[in-house]
Amino acid sequence: MGLSGSGNNGHHDINGDMIAGATNVLKTVLSLERGEEMLIVLDDSKKDIGEAFAKGAAALGASTNIYSLSKHKRPITEVPEDLRSMFRHHEVIINTFDTDPEETPFRVKLIYEEITYNARVGHAPGITREMMKNGPMQVDYGAIVKDAEHLMALFKDVKSVHITAPGGTDLTIDIEDRKFHTDVSINKGEFGNLPAGEIWCAPVEDGANGVLVVDGSIGDLGRLDEDIAIKIKDGRLESISCEDIGLAKKLRRLCSVDEMAGVIGELGIGLNPGARLVGNLLEDEKAGGTAHIAFGNNLDMSGGSNQSCTHRDFLFLKPTFTATYKDGSEMIIIDFGEVVR
User: How far are the Cα atoms of 123, 132, 159, 200, 202 from residue 264, in angstroms, in the given order?
Assistant: First the structure.
């Protein structure tokens, strides 16, 4: 989703809120420190957001360089050479530009090259002014860290998880020995989305079976007018059905661009109390009371081996997770979207 074309009324106030959101995240999630150098990769549609991050960095005593993708023909498929040469000189990198489903392979390549040189990367394609000013960027990230650690502890020694949801999702996923990650603190050589606020793991590639009913949103495509049912067999997307035949066809194409594009790549759970369902997956997948399954690339996750050029998320609402542990015991750890305490 692009930026809404709001007028200039109260522009300075907006900027103040945006700078506050940027500063909050740079300090708490990316640990930006005085004297460090930050690179912002943006395009014309996100110029003011890039500026808010630059001002936030200045407030923390860091310096900023900016690279604009708008000088290139879009969609971009490869990382530009002059951009590539900049990665090694920056401790923190922010990616903020408009999203295009055709640019997913570019975004995957970009992230991998950025973290090669040990940068801490905040990946925010499609971030909006609204996210910067209100909600998900203005929350107490320290509290989310505690929630993430609590939930990741519940997942320790889990062999498999049975997921159901009111929309009709009924899935069993093998996650034995697959470590969970969180994006609420990004370390050297790692990336996380901004706004932050989820935990995720790479499920066992051939260990997912059942039906995923998407009643939330889909990466790059947003909120849907109707639910979509995806049948998964042995970890692979087997069929997609919905009333909109054109949409089903488009999704099948996007999930079959290469051999691993239709293989389960991620199980994620949203934990950010300020995130809302807005039709932009960048924010949607962080919302509390949601979970998402992605197909495609997961090489950056513990145990992940899907070497796809794409990664697409499918979000569903109010999930219940029943975990089966290695010792055979069972426990409901998320009930109707609420994490069990």
Answer: 22, 31, 17, 13, 8
The last residue of a domain, from among 101, 120, 136: 136
1 within some domain:
no
Largest pairwise CA distance in the chain: 60
Mean pLDDT of the chain: 93
Residue 66 one-letter amino acid: I
Q: Are residues 166 and 104 in the same domain?
A: no
Angle at 121 between CA 314 and CA 334, to 5 degrees: 40
- Count of domains in the chain? 2
Give per-residue pLDDT as tens, 142-201. Answer: 899 999 999 999 999 999 999 999 999 999 999 999 999 999 989 999 999 999 999 999
**Rounded distance between C-alpha atoms, residue 318 and residue 304, angstroms:** 26
Domain range for 196 is 140-339
Containing 193, the helix (H) or strand (E) segment is: strand 190-193
Residue 155 lies in a domain: yes
Tell me, yes or no, whether 2 lies in a domain.
Answer: no
In a domain, 28, yes or no: yes
Please determine, for residue 141, whether its predicted confidence score (pLDDT) is greater than 50. yes
pLDDT, tens digit (0-9, with 9 covering 90-100), for 283-338: 999 999 999 999 999 998 999 999 999 999 999 999 999 999 999 999 999 999 99
